[in-house]
Write a structure and sequence with these properties.
The protein is an alpha+beta fold and about 230 residues long.
């Protein structure tokens, strides 16, 4: 046991040196997960666990985006290890969202798509988000409005408008994901968007777009000419 601990410590030191000297691109996905887990479980060989988690969730992004309960249940690991993985996800999202907090969202469209893909593309349930913007198109609030099943999350026009009035929003961007991976808007997506646009028109609140995120890409209802 002591010999295994010494070998494990040597392996982790090599990972650490590669990460610090060569940057994150020098580590494979399973090595990144292994190192994260090792910070929370220092006396355990975390390589098999890292590979098993990646195999179960399918990819690094899917693992980090997964619900904490699902990671703990499927990985058989404690809260400390789950927290290490979710901390990496939170840090990545914070970094990707930084441009959106410091300049108008409409001028940071690629940054917005990168942020939304990192947060939503790998999810196995549908989530609906509303981005609330002020008159200068600066982000006021990024709010989760609903979370549902693998193919549906229900929101109501009245609740969307109520929250917009609460925040003093001048404009909205609607966002949701398709767990199927196909970001093509459904008839219900288009109908709901038009209802929200009409309600916003009465209240003086613009709807800039409705973005649908999937593992296979994204759709913009505005770019598709579906907001008229």
């Amino acid at each position: 046991m002591q010999e295994e601990a010494i070998l494990g410590a040597g392996h982790r030191e090599r990972l650490r040196r590669r990460l610090i000297d060569g940057g994150p691109e020098t580590l494979l996905d399973h090595e990144l997960v292994e190192f994260l887990l090792a910070l929370a479980i220092p006396r355990r060989d975390t390589k098999p666990l890292a590979k098993r988690l990646l195999g179960q969730f399918g990819s690094l992004s899917a693992l980090l985006c997964a619900d904490a309960e699902a990671i703990g249940r499927n990985g058989g690991i404690g809260e400390g290890a789950v927290a290490a993985l979710k901390l990496a996800h939170a840090a990545a999202l914070r970094m990707l969202s930084e441009p959106l907090r410091n300049q108008p969202v409409l001028g940071s469209w690629q940054a917005l798509l990168d942020y939304l893909r990192a947060d939503l593309a790998a999810l196995t349930v549908e989530r609906v988000r509303i981005l609330h913007l002020n008159a200068r198109n600066m982000l006021i609030r990024d709010e989760l409005m609903a979370e549902g099943s693998i193919d549906q999350a229900v929101i109501h026009v009245r609740e969307v408008m109520r929250r917009a009035l609460d925040f003093g929003s001048a404009a909205l961007i609607l966002v949701h994901n398709h767990p199927s991976g196909d970001p093509t808007p459904s008839r219900a997506d288009i109908q709901l968007t038009k209802q929200i646009i009409e309600a916003g028109r009465i209240l003086g609140i613009s709807v800039h777009d409705h973005i649908i995120i999937g593992a296979n890409g994204h759709s913009s209802l505005r770019a598709a000419g579906l907001l008229n």
